[in-house]
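Protocol step 4 of 6: structure prediction from sequence.
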Amino acid sequence: MSHQDTQSILAGKTYFIRTFGCQMNLHDSERVSGLLDSLGCFLAADPADADIVIFMTCCVREAADQRLYGQCSSCKSLPVPPSGKRVIAVGGCIAQRDGERLLSHIDNVDVIFGTQAIAHVGELLAQAFEDDERHIDTAEGDLPAATTLPWHREQPFHAWVPIMTGCNNFCTYCIVPYVRGREKSRPFDAIVDEVAGLVRCGVREVTLLGQNVNSYGRDVHGEPRFAELLRAVGETGIERIRFTSSHPKDLSLQTIEAMAEVPAVMPHLQLAVQSGSSRILKLMNRRYSREDYLRLVDAVRERIPGIALTTDIIVGFPGETEEDFEQTLSLAEEVGYAQAFTFIYSRREGTPAAKIEDSTPREVIQERFDRLVKAIEGTAYAFNQHELGQRVPVLVEGASKKDARILQGKSPKNQTVHAPIPEGASLDMYVGHIVDVDVDVARTWYLSGTVAGDPR
């Protein structure tokens, strides 16, 4: 189908996108949205008002499959959309992994597109409107990357910037390498030029994305160039640089130096540990030990004192004993995480860990998980006390969900910060701007205080 045909079929139609999972999916969703905007579609606030409903899926967690099935099923009871016909599409990792097999679980899906088929979404949707057939594209290979497509950013002051796609690590619990393919780095200059362009458009903060940003450039240059990339991005004039995900086995001293020396790189590092037990780390194929990880933490803290360290931790990996879990607990307390994303192990078919038998009762795993959450709450509370009485620059994202008169934003260390909007001022004066806040309350999950001076 030609571009012109696609445009004439989709022009004027409304769309709604629901996104599950990681930041890479959020970026992919913004590109799908941008593509549909360029074809004359309009964003709807609710699935009930949408001619096109798209689910951008993640298959890392088992519950995501069930959520997708439930949400697709609930579309059946929606009222007739503006155009008289609704097309349901599933994209992302579940689409890539299951392809046509999805149809046996969901009978009302019209379009299925994989992680590398985003550029073809328009044609697939247009065909589905025309012929009532199901259209599936989960091809892999040299298709146009999502990064080449138009872009509808959720926030004008922040942008997700993928620097690479895929993963070569094959952690035994993880499905990502199977659904996103091998590591493929974007050209160095293309990334720097993109950030420079975003700065000209008024973007204040970028988050560099990759499954393992520390190995950026290895596939092209034979050695990682992430430290060099951080320095080059820092020279574009962007005010805040964040990045995720960072694999401990590849975090180099050069990258730590770049983080310390580039003013725009925020003092926050998401360094996924997954377990504090060297035995479990080996079963996970993480390729570092507990001692390696703790040495890395010391090296980071030596160069960037006060940095916020956050992490991912899995509880209940097959064969994890009480002793293994105790090591995770003690590591979390020793590191003193500012925050942690804690998960109960989720068995994924097709991964090596799925073959490991485990007889640990679910209630034992749940009890361990609850103990870990409590420990993290303790370290997060303790970490936030350092900001008490300090003046913190906050990038304002909007109003607090609980109170429209309270600003909400992020500190350099990625802490959520609240402050009342000053008398006589409006929210619009602050959103997307940086403002100083004098912190007088420090809780587990947020800081709060009063605005000092004008937004900038």
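Step 5 (inspection) to follow. The chain has a mean pLDDT of 91.
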